[in-house]
Design brief:
The chain has ten helices and twelve strands. A hairpin with a 2-residue loop joins strand 1 and strand 2. The termini are far apart. 28% of the residues are buried. The model has no long low-confidence stretch (mean pLDDT 89).
């Protein structure tokens, strides 16, 4: 069994077509077919079956493919670790993060880190709370920013980087838009613009409203902070967003007001897989982040 056979097998499984796989691999179609045939002969099973013009994995092919994908990913990381050992300042860091951190925080952090390590490469993957956990466990990313920090998940480990306040956002012509502080209870008759199911900010806002004595009436749902802000600014409802997500990206902006009774916050953490060893370059980035947020907390005035 050869590495090339496994690589060709996974590519055909992904493309469900020998010709398309061969085109992406930049090899002849006959070479791909021959390697797949040899692999099936060696294993003594059929890995694919014909379905129309496409190929589909057989049940045993599906089982084998899952294992092979893990092997190839581990091999890829092993090669990367060798390169990083030879020159840890030229490695690649794979980072996952939620949308609410992508507008301002992630670019700022990466820019500052690359001033110290200009040759380090980054590969980014944006996702919801469940998908970020899944990507960490599957080895798709080395580290993931996540909110809220998963306190009770034994499969991932990490650190709380910061606790961030959520602000009420209102249309500019809302009667409460000029207030410096409001009680969340004052929004109980309003329509809310919330994140869709699966996004971590939704249960935080929902629970805060219940704590304030009411269940939010949902007018619209979305998956991006820009959408939430835009709909509120257009008068479609009200919402709560973390300060980090209020970075202005277009002229149409909602008013933002501090909330008390209850004060609404979220934790932002950095996680990695509990089992497994971070690459050297990812460990350097993690150490940089812990120092970055520690300095940030020290330099933030109390009550700001």
């Amino acid at each position: 069994m050869e590495l090339r056979q496994l690589q060709y097998f996974v590519k055909v499984a992904q493309k469900e077509h020998v010709t398309r796989a061969a085109e992406e691999l930049h090899v002849a179609q006959s070479a791909v077919s021959r390697q797949i045939h040899q692999l099936e002969q060696e294993l003594g099973v059929d890995l694919f079956m014909q379905k129309g013009r496409n190929l589909q994995l057989t049940p045993v092919g599906q089982l084998f493919c899952k294992r092979v994908e893990i092997v190839l990913k581990d091999l890829e990381r092993s090669v990367a670790e060798v390169h990083e050992f030879l020159d840890p300042e030229r490695g690649e860091i794979r980072i996952g993060f939620p949308h609410s951190l992508g507008t301002n925080l992630i670019p700022s952090i990466v820019a500052e880190f690359r001033q110290l390590y200009p040759h380090v490469k980054f590969r980014f993957k944006q996702g919801s709370y469940p998908s970020l956990i899944k990507d960490v466990l599957a080895g798709e990313v080395d580290l993931a920013f996540i909110s809220p920090f998963p306190e009770d998940d034994e499969q991932v480990s990490g650190d709380v980087l910061m606790t961030e306040e959520l602000f009420a956002i209102l249309p500019q012509n809302h009667p409460l838009a000029g207030e410096s502080v409001i009680r969340l209870e004052q929004l109980k008759e309003e329509k809310f613009v919330l994140f869709s199911q699966g996004y971590s900010l939704r249960p935080i806002v929902w629970q805060a409203c219940l704590q304030a004595g009411f269940k939010p009436q949902i007018a619209f749902e979305g998956g991006e902070t820009d959408t939430i802000r835009g709909l509120v600014a257009a008068g479609m409802g009200v919402s709560l967003l973390p300060e980090m997500a209020l970075f202005q990206t277009n002229p149409l902006q909602p008013a933002q007001v501090r909330v008390m009774e209850p004060s609404v916050t979220r934790t932002v953490g950095l996680i990695h897989r509990t089992e497994g060893k971070l690459p050297l370059v990812a460990r350097s980035f993690r150490a940089f982040l812990l120092n970055y947020f520690s300095d940030r907390q020290k330099n933030t005035p109390v009550g700001s």
